[in-house]
Queue: 2 jobs
Job 1
Amino acid sequence: MKHPVLFKKWVAPILLCALLTGCATAPVKLNTPSGRPEVTIFGSTKKKISNTIINRELSKGWDLKSQADSLLVFTRKNTELGTQLLFGSRYDSVPESRITFTLVEIEDAIRVLLKGEIVTNPGSTFERIEDVTAINAAEAEALQIALEEIKTGIEATNNRDGVVSR
C-alpha cells in the first residue's frame, strides 16, 4: 500500500463509521398490537373492506396484482430517482413498489395489516424484496395513516347506513 498513514488516519475510520451506521438501523415499532401498520374495523365484512381498499388503491394509480380471500397485493413501477439508484439493477433499473393488505377475521371485527415493499428485478428469478415498513419509520407511519383513513371511511359509511361500530 502506497499511503498506509492516509489509510489508517482517514479511510479506515470512514469505512468503520459507514459499517456501524448501516448496522445501527433500529426496527420500526408503531403503537399497534403488531408494531406494524394495522387497524381493526368493527361492523363490516371482509368483502366490503376489500372492495373499499381495491377502489381506493386503483384510484391512486396502483395495479391489483393478486387478490384472495384474505390478501390484496398492489404494485406499480417506482420511477423516483433515489429509489432507482438504491434498488435498480443492471437487469431492470426500475424497481417496483408493492403493498400487501392482509385481512383477518377476529370475533366481531376485521383486522387489516399493511406491508410496503420495494422489489428489485420484479417477476424475474433474480427478484429481491426489501420490506420498507420494517426499516423506514416514515413509510410505516404513512401506511398507518392510509389504514386509518380506510377505517374512518368504512366506519362513516357504516354510521350512515345505521351499522353499529366500536
Note: Residues 28-160 form a domain with the TATA-Binding Protein fold (CATH 3.30.310.80).
Job 2
Amino acid sequence: DGGLSALQRHNGKLAQLSPDNNSLDYIKTHYRLMQMLGVNRPLLVRPMRKVTPTLADDEMFDVILNDAARMAPEALTGFYQSLDRWNIHSCIKHVDVPMLILAGAQDALVPVAALTEMRDHLKQGQLVVWEDVGHSPQLEQPDRFMALIKEFVTAHSTPPPRPKSTPKPPDSWFDNFKNGLGRFFKGVWQRQAS
C-alpha cells in the first residue's frame, strides 16, 4: 500500500520519468504492484479501499474484495502483460458514435489524465469527472450513475419515426363476416344478371 500511496502523491514526478510520459504507464505501475501483492485477500484490502474510497457499503466491498482474491494469478499477469501490447488509441480513433467516459477524481488506479487522453482520441467523446468518487462510480454512487447513463442515452437516441397517417383499426369479426357475405352475394347477383 505504501507504493500505491507514493504513486498517488508523486504522480507528476513519476510520470516525467517514463520515456513517453504516457498515462498508461501509471496504470501499468499499479498493475505491477497488484501483481506483486498477488491475490492475497488481506493484502488487497488497503489497495482496494484506495480504488473505491467512497464505497460505504461494506457488504459490496466484501463482494469486490472476494472477487479480486479469487482471480487466478495468471489472469492478473496476463492482463498486465497485455497492457504492453495493446494500444487503445489506435482502436478508438475509428469509433464514430457518442461515447461517455466517467472518471472518478479519487480513482487511485486510472488517473483523470488517462481518461482525458482517451477522450481526446474519440470523435464524439464526452468526459464527465465526478470529484467525489473513485474507480467504481457505478458501485460508489449507483443512483447518480444510472441517472447519468439515462441522460446520456436519452440525449443521443433518436426517437422512432412516426407513421405518416394513422393506421386504420382492424375490422371487427362482424365487419369481416358482413364484407365476406357482401362479396359472395355480389358475385351471385352478377352471375344471375348475365
Note: The first strand starts at residue 99 and ends at 104.
